[in-house]
Write a structure and sequence with these properties.
By secondary structure, the protein is of the alpha+beta class. It contains twelve helices and 29 strands.
Length: 495
């Protein structure tokens, strides 16, 4: 009898387990778990827009240009073809950014559109330098539909930041955020006037930070996937708190429209520029007078470095602050005032942020040894000069590295802006020089800091070079000096 009771209990337990695993029970369990789990929602930008939109403005500019034939229908943007068909209304033509203006005889008034945002109650407005460049007149339309004339206080092409002002008071102001605290993946939004549709809102995430573009050495751009189109330029990039963290400036596109990559100027940099423009009408930035390049793996080995971090000094302008302060070609700058320099583009940013006249401490590696240099930073010059190329001299075959060179006289050296060197007249495509990227017309200046004063001197230096180890060869090309890594076995690293 006791055994029967135990068997009944086992059967009941098995039945209960089976019911618990049934589809109905599993579905109920899943529903209960889902109800218990917190619901993740996408951000709501309504409060952000209500807070920020009153301080965002539409900017329209006009300038006089020479008459051009009316553009063909194949050049007409889709947004306007939607409204006007294949032709614009009579008497209108497009400007280089976006907009239209009435045509006249000989000269046209071309209008373009952009965006901006108010940074002070007394009418100071930030936008892009390219939005107001060359404008004969600037009109700002506020959120309350007032239209006011604006004047340019100053603009800075290097950062693409401009400060303009309208005659008004008690204006709404955007709250400033801290762009240095932005993180990849963070939600952001843009408010602007794409194609003239003012106060349009788009959103996305930060795709990357500290992005370097080929045409800009002074701005560590914020990369986003926020939809930006012509007319958005100069508008604010906002975080979820409604604070401005950047100025929308550029897009990457092959079609002229948004393709998923947009770039904004960090607000911390933009406000520093704005303060300088407001004070002096121009920006003063630190200057060394040095041409720099990346440190490849082979160059790092040849220069006695343990890694490829830093900025390699390829050339110094004679009499410039870097030259006076003791920098030398071949030095690798790895820090500025204690801040690390991992890539070459970081050096001009660090130096430009230093007030001209102040002393900067540069941590460098020279001949494999670390040392510090104290250099008084200069002010960035308003104009740059460059030298023309020139060649002449006698020939001499350099069998070991695979090229033919010619000597240069004093006149050639002065014209090239180099103290010594020989010109490359022919390169063996299968030799070590070709593998290093040496080209006809290059001027070889020195190898591992040994000056090349003639073809005979080059032959003597090359004869003593080691096998299977790269050496640093300094080359003048197109008025600029740069280093290349030469390996005598002809193998060059791609890193």
């Amino acid at each position: 009898m006791q055994f029967g009771k135990q068997r009944t209990s086992i059967v009941a337990l098995a039945l209960a387990s089976a019911l618990a695993c049934s589809p109905l029970a599993l579905a109920q369990s899943t529903e209960q778990s889902a109800a218990a789990a917190p619901t993740q929602r996408l951000p709501n930008f309504t409060a952000l827009v209500k807070k920020a939109a009153p301080a965002v403005v539409n900017i329209s500019t006009k300038r006089e240009v020479a008459s051009d034939p009316m553009m063909g229908s194949d050049q007409l943007p889709d947004i306007f073809r939607h409204f006007f068909g294949d032709q614009l209304p009579p008497g209108f033509s497009f400007g280089p950014d976006m907009g239209a203006g009435p045509q006249g005889r000989g000269h046209d008034t071309v209008a373009s559109l952009g965006s901006g945002f108010i940074i002070s109650q007394d009418g100071y407005i930030l936008t892009n330098a390219h939005v107001v460049e060359g404008a004969d007149s600037i009109e700002v339309k506020l959120n309350d539909r007032r239209q006011l004339k604006a004047k340019v206080i100053g603009s800075d092409k290097k950062t693409d930041v401009a400060l303009i002002k309208v005659d008004a008071n008690h204006l709404p102001v955007l709250e400033r955020g801290n762009s240095s605290q932005l993180e990849t993946g963070e939600w952001v939004a843009a408010i602007g006037s794409p194609f003239g549709f003012d106060h349009s809102v788009t959103s996305g995430i930060v795709s990357a930070i500290n992005r370097t573009l080929s045409s800009d050495n002074f701005v560590p751009f914020i990369q986003t996937d926020v939809a930006i189109n012509p007319g958005n330029s100069g508008g604010p990039l906002l975080n979820l708190q409604g604070q401005v963290v950047g100025i929308n400036s550029q897009i990457y596109t092959r079609s002229g429209g948004f393709m998923g990559l947009s770039f904004a100027i960090p607000i911390n940099i933009a406000m520093d520029v704005a303060d300088s423009l407001k004070k002096d009408g121009q920006v003063h930035r630190g200057y060394l007078g040095a041409a720099i390049q990346e440190v490849s793996k082979d160059l790092a080995e040849s220069l006695g470095l343990s890694d490829t971090k830093g900025a390699l000094i390829a050339q110094l302008k004679q009499g410039a602050p870097g030259d006076k302060g003791g920098l030398q070609p071949g030095d690798v700058v790895q820090s500025v005032n204690g801040q690390k320099i991992d890539t070459p583009d970081e050096l001009p940013r660090r130096v430009s942020a230093i007030k001209p006249g102040d002393t900067a401490t540069l941590g460098i590696v020279r001949d494999g040894k670390r040392q510090n240099l104290k250099i008084t930073v200069g002010d960035w010059p308003r104009a740059d000069g460059s030298s023309d190329d020139g060649t002449s001299g006698s020939q001499g075959q350099q069998h070991r590295i695979g090229l033919v060179v010619g000597d240069l006289d004093e006149s050639d050296l002065r014209q090239l802006g180099v103290p010594h060197g020989v010109v490359v007249q022919r390169v063996d495509p299968n030799g070590a020089a070709a593998s290093a990227g040496i080209q006809s017309g290059d001027v070889l200046v020195d190898v591992n800091r040994h000056a090349i004063t003639s073809g005979a001197k080059l032959r003597a230096i090359v004869a003593r070079l080691p096998h299977n180890r790269p050496v640093a060869l300094r080359v003048a090309r197109g008025g600029q000096l740069l280093f290349v890594a030469l390996r005598l076995d002809g193998k060059q690293s791609d890193e």
